[in-house]
Amino acid sequence: MIESLISSKTRIKLLLKFFLNSETKSYLRHLESEFGESTNAIRLELNKLEEAGMLNSQFEGNKKIYQANKQHPLFNDISSIILKYTGIDWIVEYLVKRLGDVKKVYLSGSFARGLNSETIDLLIVGEIDVVFMDELCLKIKKKIEKTINYQVYSEAKQVDKLINNEKNSYLLLWEK
Fold first, then answer.
1. Is there a single domain that holds both residue 72 and residue 92?
2. What is the pTM of this model?
3. Of 38, 90, 155, 176, whose CA is between 20 and 30 Å from 31?
4. What is the rounded (10 degree) CA torsion for 155, 158, 161, 166?
5. Based on the domain organization, do 92 and 55 belong to the same domain?
6. Are 168 and 92 within one domain?
7. In CATH, what number is assigned to the domain containing residue 54?
């Protein structure tokens, strides 16, 4: 879908990386190893996104660190498009409406780190029917062609402790 609008696969990867989780920071060599692409292709796209004001950068030693510009007028729109592209917006809406007493939904795993994946990892806080959740995951898989893995915690305290230990590994998607 988005490939018809944005022809550069590298640019799509960068948009996913920085706009799926706006707290994500990275530098050129790390992106090279993560994406498995040449530094030149990545550098060209980083420069275009920075010139457009969509990315901010700062130097830490000799590394130029990039991060999404949350003040950009299109930041919310781009983030929304990325959530739709990955199917995450639909998952949260679908799950929250049908599961019952959901207090919070977090994204974890590859997507929380800004990487596209065939698996969406969720951490759910609340009391839910696990059998019904499994049925929903099968329906969702047919709709968006991604596998859903999830963990359920009944108390937010357990999750807060987990998240505080690994801040960049979890992204809050929905909260009651």
1. no
2. 0.79
3. 90
4. -100
5. no
6. yes
7. 1.10.10.10
Whether 94 and 166 share a structural domain: yes
Q: Determine the distance from the C-alpha atom of residue 99 to the mean position of all C-alpha atoms in its chain, rounded to a whole number.
A: 22
Does residue 31 have a pLDDT over 90?
yes
Average pLDDT, stretch 35-45? 93
CATH code of the domain covering residue 100: 3.30.460.10
| Both structure tokens of 35 | 């994406």
Q: What is the pLDDT of residue 113?
A: 82
pLDDT at 4 over 70: no
- Amino acid making up residue 88: I
Q: How confident is the model at residue 52 (pLDDT cuts 50, 70, 90)?
A: very high
Same domain assignment for residues 56 and 97? no
Sort 155 into a burial class: Cβ within 10 Å, 0-12 / 13-18 / 19+.
exposed
**pLDDT beyond 90 at 100:** no
In this structure, what token pair is assigned to residue 109? Answer: 């795993």
Q: Residue 103's domain spans which residues? A: 87-175
Extended strands (E) in the chain = 25-27, 55-60, 63-68, 100-108, 119-128, 147-153, 170-175
